[in-house]
Design a protein that fits this description.
Biased composition (Basic and acidic residues) (chains A, B): 7-18
GO molecular function, one term (chains A, B): oxidoreductase activity
Domain Amine oxidase (chains A, B): 97-543
Number of strands of chain A: 26
Radius of gyration of chain A: 28 Å
Helix content of chain A: 25-40%
Region (Disordered) (chains A, B): 1-34
CATH architecture of the largest domain in chain A: 3-Layer(bba) Sandwich
Oligomer: homodimer
Protein name (chains A, B): Monoamine oxidase
Shape of chain A: globular
Distance between the termini of chain A: 16 Å
Largest sheet of chain A: 5 strands, parallel
Chain lengths: 550, 550
């Protein structure tokens, strides 16, 4: 297999001139003594636990490759009876994937070095705070001026409770809190509306009319062939409750669920009115406002790391050890050889060739494609097919939390058909003095008004658009802002990457010689932290199995 | 007006024998000098701000009584130009209402004393922690054995973001966090089901079939007279998205939204199946599971006070001052006199008659009705009409948070038609070692299996019922539990009170002589902390206006 051992081995290691760069460890060649498979496995199981046994089973070709999804982390004990030693691994990229690989391999004794071109770890998992500086490709530097405790999750901001991200947060002691992804009190605004409406009103009216229409059709006999009489009665009862219909006529005539013009207190509340017609409600035509939490990925509740979504990458980096992470170090060449991998870098110490037994490349695929080396034409061709997606956000800090004080909105998002797409209100710092909201979160190129603009223009446009929803206060008391356009972030150049033909991913899920690829882009959880973690676990398992079987 | 000054004034103050009980302050009778109304108001406005002006306007009969809902707190400055002095006020009951009254009046300089029969403040706003002891009427004492940091909100547990409760938490520095009232990952279980299903599956299937049925009816022409062709197309597009229907046939054939049999990772997720028929889904017949967040009172997100819902009452008590709150002191007689109120109490110091200018009775109405005195037959009759509602909860502490670890449920509730009604998973302490869930929260008498039982039987039954949803682990690792049946709580005797004829409330919203009534039961936010606060504000405003106008 050409890609298994590398098509173009470099004959000799380049002189690095770096004093603390050890020569590659010779691969250990000792084999276990002559024992039966069963005795070996039982012995390993007794001494090293299930993890060691499973790893050894894999090494012996016994473990099914796809059936078992549970991750069994490599551990030092896995080597104790096999006679092998942990290998030296170079990990390219200190984003979530790279750090997770280094963390998991490091736990088992692998000698990992993480190489990162940017000046900080985390990659797209970027949380910006007061004092941070960053530059976009072709734009001036931004200096973040948020007050103490304020932050901006410029990248991923949400975790679904079933995702492996939660497990890593638990394991590493990173506390989580609710990320409010649905708020009935937030607004919906489309350009056809005279004024924004509360999400609760959209929901009540839409559910009300859907229920009324279906109840009337049921009573007119339209469902007689689909449903039994008993089912029809249950359906009618459900619709009356679901739509808050008149229990006799099944008419929708508005509902307190829309919101109150005057909330109840000592006196009864007064329903927010007038109630729009079914035609008006259909005309809002922003289903996203009512279905955004329908998917498993976005179902409520969601979670965020307390204090910023870089909590996990910070915890990873701490466990890995800062000395193993080389920042400001750019990969300029990757060569996979029969017995090692050479990775050439430009860093603070000039040009250095790092050598290891294996390499895991966790950079965005379209960036790996540009790095010279000997990965082979099929691999480079597959990598080149990656299409980076633009996405961007702006965070705006205000001197007071007017959305809580005046609009009674605590977290969640206002959905709109404007190019800002949505406004996210913070799910932390309730009752605080200042507050930071997300003034746009745009995805994809169709409406990408903001990426080409310099920051000050994005700021201006975000305020102009937000004013359509919140009025003049949206432009009042603004303290500062910061914005990120992911296609313009150096060494990242995209919010995430997709492939028109996912078939090419099969090529990239296999190692190219001694070089493995990993990242959310290789998974079915693209653009989620969980995708990075799942990919890291898979590659770590594959690599560990290979090391144990060599 | 008979009720305004009291129908049966007692001629003389009883000897109290209590040394620190000052005689009632004689009412101040000085009047402001001869100025015009306008000049007076402008002067008050300039010197005392809007609060003083509004209070003075009320005193002069200028303020509309019902139109303005915003509360303007009494302040010391309100007295500075009117020549009056703050009065002495006895407040009966140290629940939320009583404490809010004492807090608001105290800010303006009123001399308040709060009298509470129980051994702690808070009333139904009761948070139980390890070491707490409490007794139910006719039952043994319970000793709470929860671990450090664990707590049980035996009473109110949730705040809607538009409620005044949030404003008080902000004002008093009581931090809040999200109370998860809806969780797609939690279960739904009815006795007709073979096994519990995830709420997400119920929602996806119900929305799927509703959408399919309505789309088919639309395409069959059943809505042609109700909707234009254009509206019908918008509706169909919406239904396809809302129900996750086949975009060509408008069939519902299941959806990833139901949940995954295998969640996505490197490989695609596998949809949870099989998909039940429309008849099966209608047969679940638990609309509450899908509509519980529909109302404004229960719309997501909701909030809770960090560390327990007694945070606000603790903050109130601290501001009021412990010396002004007499616990273990039972009211045995209330007499409203022309110039004062006498309240007779049995407390640690024996029988004491407290005297004040005014009294605010915040006890449950059916308990006030039993207290001898001279409130008058119409008032007592109205109070007697109160019907206490039973409600109860059990909190169960486990040695591990299996609902997070195994079920991936972080907060929210499982809804069921069993007599436990629901199971609430905690919205705090995520990733912790131990966890406390609510094993039942029953409301009303229809299914009130638990109130008559002693605690150990409630515990046993709750575990038996919960096992139907969660299996044997529900009875494994149980550390301790505590349960409250509100009709059996001394000096409370009900979760809340309702009135068959709300007309009688008009009588009780007026003072009986110098005795005012306040409580959630007088409002349209019955059983909410916000109801207590709104009632307190109204009575405080009324009383303050009266004092300023005397």
């Amino acid at each position: 297999m050409t890609t298994e051992e590398g098509p173009d081995p470099r004959p000799a290691q380049e002189e690095t001139g770096k004093p603390d760069q050890p020569p590659p460890a010779p691969p250990t060649r000792r084999r276990p003594g002559p024992v039966t498979r069963r005795a070996l496995l039982l012995g390993i199981g007794a001494a090293g636990g299930a993890g060691a046994m499973y790893a050894a089973m894999g090494a012996l070709g016994l473990a099914p490759r796809e059936q078992k999804r549970d991750f069994i982390a490599p551990r030092p004990g896995d080597f104790s009876l096999t006679g092998r030693a942990a290998a030296k691994v170079l990990i390219l990229g200190a984003g979530v994937t790279g750090l997770a690989c280094a963390y998991e391999l490091g736990k088992a004794g692998y000698d990992c070095t993480v190489i990162e071109a940017r000046d900080r770890v985390g990659g797209r998992c970027l949380t910006l705070r007061g004092g941070d500086r960053f530059t976009e490709i072709g734009d001036e530097q931004q200096v973040v001026r948020f007050g103490e405790g304020g932050y901006f999750n410029a990248g991923p901001a949400r975790i679904a409770q079933w995702m492996v991200t939660m497990d890593y947060c638990r394991e590493l002691g990173v506390p989580v809190e609710v990320f409010i992804n649905d708020n009935a009190q937030a607004y919906v605004y489309t350009r056809g509306m005279k004024a924004p409406i509360r999400a609760a009103a959209y929901r009540a009216d839409m559910y009300g009319y859907l229920s009324e229409l279906l109840a009337k059709a049921t009573n007119a006999g339209a469902l007689n062939r689909r449903l039994t009489r008993a089912d029809r009665q249950v359906l009618l009862d459900f619709l009356a409750e679901f739509g808050d219909l008149d229990r006799r006529t099944y008419d929708y005539g508005g509902s307190d669920r829309r919101g109150y013009a005057t909330p109840p207190g000592v006196q009864p509340g007064k329903m927010l009115g007038p109630v729009p017609s079914v035609s008006e409600v259909l005309g809002y035509d922003l289903p996203r406002a009512l279905t955004k939490t329908a998917s498993q990925e976005q179902a409520a509740p969601m979670f965020q790391m307390v204090g910023g979504m870089d909590g996990l990458v910070r915890a990873f980096a701490e466990r890995i050890g800062e000395d193993r992470i080389l920042t400001r170090t750019k990969v300029t060449r990757i060569d996979t050889l029969p017995d090692r991998v050479d990775v050439t870098c430009e860093g603070p110490d000039g040009t250095v060739v790092h050598t290891a037994d294996y390499c895991i490349a966790t950079l965005p695929p379209h960036l790996i494609a540009r790095i010279p080396g000997n990965l082979g034409a099929p691999v480079v061709s597959a990598l080149t097919a990656a299409q980076p997606t633009p996405a961007g956000k702006i965070a705006i800090e205000y001197d007071r939390r007017w959305w809580e004080l005046e609009d009674k909105i605590f977290g969640g998002s206002t959905e709109t058909d404007l190019d800002i797409t949505r406004i996210w209100y913070p799910s932390y710092g309730f009752f605080g003095e200042r507050g930071i909201l997300i003034g746009y979160y745009t995805i994809g190129s169709a409406k990408d008004t903001f990426t080409p603009l310099p920051h000050r223009e994005r700021h201006r446009r975000a305020l102009t658009q937000g004013k359509k929803i919140h009025g003049e206060k949206y432009r009042t008391g603004v303290l500062s802002s910061a914005s990120v356009a992911w296609t313009r972030q150096p060494y990242i150049e995209g919010a995430w990457a997709t492939f028109t033909d996912p078939g090419v991913l099969a090529t990239l899920r296999r190692p190219a010689g001694r070089v493995y690829f990993a990242g959310d882009w290789l998974t079915n959880l693209n653009a989620w932290i969980a995708g990075s973690l799942e990919s890291a676990r898979t590659v770590v398992t594959d690599l560990h199995r290979r090391v144990l079987s060599q």
